[in-house]
Amino acid sequence: MDLEILKIASNTENNKIINNHTHKSKHKNPICGDEMIISLKIKGNKIKEFGYQCKSCIYCQASVSLLSRKSINRSVDSLKKIIEIVENYFENQKITFPKEWSIFKKLFNEKNLSRKECLKLPFKTLSKIFKD
Questions:
Q1: What's the angle, vertex CA 30, arms to CA 98 and CA 126, rounded to 5?
Q2: What are phi and psi of 48, to 5 degrees?
Q3: For residues 88 and 35, which has the higher predicted lDDT (pLDDT)?
Q4: Quick check: pTM over 0.70?
């Protein structure tokens, strides 16, 4: 187990319920059964609050923790772009993370290939918000 992943996952400042959310989504990983709920408060096309709850492995927890912290005060369009990058990341080796999202390289790399569905679950949950 990578200590960096444990460190990232241990930051749970956004592991909370947002009662007055404007958007909410729930998604389950059919492979392992991990569950994720994401609630957002969006105002003026910007993410103002990001809350999550999960019953999941450490990889999924690290991914959602990092996503939650990096999403606050970003535009909805910016999140849609990172979702698209993550959806195709492991299938296309030429894809790179934009500078503002480069921290995700700590999670999305070859040594974590077997955990790609765990890492992608928060992004899949978030994408459901923007499709609804």
A1: 35
A2: -95, -35
A3: 35
A4: yes
pLDDT over threshold 80, residue 92:
no
Q: What is the pLDDT of residues 46-63, one digit of tens each?
A: 999 999 999 999 999 999
Q: 2 with 90: CB under 8 angstroms? A: no
Q: Which domain holds residue 79?
A: 3-131
Give residues with Cβ within 8 angstroms of 70, minimum separation 6.
Answer: 100, 101, 103, 104
- Classified as helix, coil or strand, 43 is strand
Residue found under tokens 């404007």: 22
- Residue 73, judged by CB atoms within 10 A of its CB (0-12, 13-18, 19+), counts as exposed
Amino acid 1: pLDDT: 58
CATH code, 90: 3.90.1010.10
